[in-house]
Design goal:
By secondary structure, this protein is of the alpha/beta class. The protein folds into two domains: 70 residues, no CATH class; 306 residues, Vaccinia Virus protein VP39 (Rossmann fold). The protein contains 20 helices and 13 strands. A seven-stranded mixed beta sheet has the order 5-4-3-6-7-13-12. A four-stranded antiparallel beta sheet has the order 8-9-10-11. Strand 8 and strand 9 form a beta hairpin. Helix 11 runs parallel beside helix 20. It is elongated. About 12% of the residues have low confidence. It is an enzyme of class 2 (transferase).
């Protein structure tokens, strides 16, 4: 039997008719082109033709004299004397084309070389780690469990240095604080820098009477308009053994969570808290955690509701169900720097408020502010007014051509606000814009009017004493300056239709 020769086998199995090898080698009958385009030779002649072809091929002097390729010739370290002539050494002159054409290849032997015997060395590696019969053995279920929970020396060393065990509570994603500029940055810095004092220290504030009265007004507003909207809500949520909470609230500009106790009293099901000051949001979150009353579900987001949609602060699942009440207390006037901010604020209010829901809030009284500004003499450089408790300073008088948006002033309130930039809210313009978002006003009163209307109410009169607005004899905790500062504001309520 002839020795292994891949070149000869390639010629024998070639589907191409090539005169360079043999003029009598036809295409094989198994070639795809023959199968598709030719019927091929008859079955009884095909085997004879194949034998004659192979016989003639083996008798050909060129193929018969061809030297078979051995494995040793494929080794880069083994170079035969004949092959060394094909690769000249470095520095030798390059042969010319004439010398190359005249040179004749050496004659080849007509006899076939002997077959190279197979190696008799046994397969016995000396550095094998696993057993020879363990490579294809599948892992058992016990081994799979072992490797799945395997903890190496490095992991054990690191975990052994921990002073406390890992918490099983899910880690909340903390969004990086957004950098603000201009007046917005001043507002954020002010409220972030104010500490969240305890109840005892809060009662020692020099304007505790004013703060208590403002809280009472917010309670009246929430009880009168938010409670009925929450009772009509179709949204309920279980509160872990404390029954069910009804209704959903969006508290925009929640600050440090001063109204958490009011929503607890309303037995609400869920509240979404958002504020531009991240530190205030953290303090509100802590106040909610320490709340001992009705435990409603709560979500917190540090978000500029006047420049960003709510979807950037809350997951879509939290906003999938509309809210019944939107509350904005002592903060909406910051949006009136630009009309774009006002529209963004109103869009956040209306987009997630159900039809029939209410939008409540408190804002400075623009008519009162501009009236006080007009009382300042024209030649007076200082465009400010106030008393020992508060001070308002306008940047300019602006005359009769006062801007609707961006009419700025600085506001100071003792133990509360430190010269923070604010903007005038023109009520008629606000109502007109709100109507474009389906919001219709149903209530608007100055704070002193709210007091006159509800001071004898069977529910709100005892609340005056409970919230320490007045004592048991009816004496107010506010002096005249605090009363004047309180009446800068008005309370409002809108309904979405």
């Amino acid at each position: 039997m002839p020795a292994f020769d891949p070149v000869r086998d390639a010629v024998l199995n070639s589907p191409i008719d090539s005169p360079s090898f043999s003029p009598i080698i036809p295409r094989r009958a198994t070639d795809l082109s023959m199968l598709l385009n030719d019927n091929g030779p008859p079955a009884h002649t095909h085997q004879q033709h194949r034998h004659s072809t192979i016989h003639s091929l083996l008798q050909d002097d060129t193929l018969a004299a061809a030297e078979p390729i051995r494995r040793s010739t494929m080794d880069i370290k083994h170079i035969s004397p004949q092959s060394s002539r094909a690769y000249p050494q470095r520095g030798s002159p390059r042969p010319s084309s004439a010398s190359t054409s005249d040179s004749q290849p050496p004659p080849r032997s007509s006899t076939s070389p002997a077959v190279v015997p197979k190696s008799t060395l046994p397969y016995k590696p000396n550095r094998r780690i696993t057993k020879a019969d363990s490579v294809l053995v599948p892992l058992s279920s016990e081994e799979m469990d072992m490797y799945r929970n395997y903890r190496g020396q490095g992991v054990a060393r690191l975990t052994g240095k921990r002073k406390r065990a890992l918490s099983e509570e899910p880690v909340e994603e903390v969004r990086p604080a957004k950098r603000h500029t201009g007046d917005v940055a001043a507002v954020v810095q002010h409220y972030n820098s104010r500490p969240d004092v305890g109840v005892v220290q809060r009662m020692e504030s020099p304007i505790i009477g004013l703060k208590a009265f403002n809280n009472w007004v917010k309670s009246v507003l929430i009880t009168r308009f938010a409670h009925p909207a929450l009772e009509k809500s179709s949204f309920t949520r279980s509160n872990g053994g404390q029954g069910f909470g009804r209704g959903k609230v969006l508290d925009m500009g929640c600050g440090k969570g001063g109204d958490i106790s009011k929503w607890t009293k309303a037995r609400v099901g869920e509240v979404l808290f958002c504020d531009i000051a991240a530190v205030s949001i953290e303090q509100a979150h802590g106040r909610w955690k320490s709340n001992r009353g009705h435990r409603f579900d709560a979500s917190f987001a540090a978000l500029d509701c006047y420049a960003e949609p709510l979807i950037k602060g809350f997951p879509p699942a939290k906003l999938s169900t509309p809210v019944d009440v939107v509350s904005m207390q002592f903060c909406m006037h910051y949006a009136f720097e630009k009309i774009q901010k006002v529209r963004c604020m109103l869009d956040n209010v209306s987009k997630y408020l159900r039809p029939g829901g209410v939008f409540i809030g408190t804002i400075p009284n623009a008519e009162l502010l501009l009236e006080q500004l007009d009382h300042i003499p024209p030649d007076e450089e200082d465009k400010s007014f106030g008393n020992s408790v508060y001070k308002i300073t306008f940047d300019n008088r602006s005359g009769n051509d006062r801007p609707i948006y961006g009419h700025k002033y600085s506001f100071f309130l003792e133990d509360a606000v430190e010269n923070v930039p604010e903007y005038v809210v023109h009520w008629d313009n606000f109502v007109q814009l709100a109507s474009e978002y389906g919001l219709v006003p149903i209530y608007k009163e100055e704070f002193h009017q709210v007091f006159q209307e509800h001071q004898e109410h069977p529910e709100f009169k005892p609340l005056l004493v409970k919230m320490k607005v007045v004592d048991a004899q009816g004496e107010s905790a506010m002096d005249e300056d605090q009363w004047e500062a309180a009446n800068i504001y008005i309370a409002f309520a809108f309904e979405k239709r």
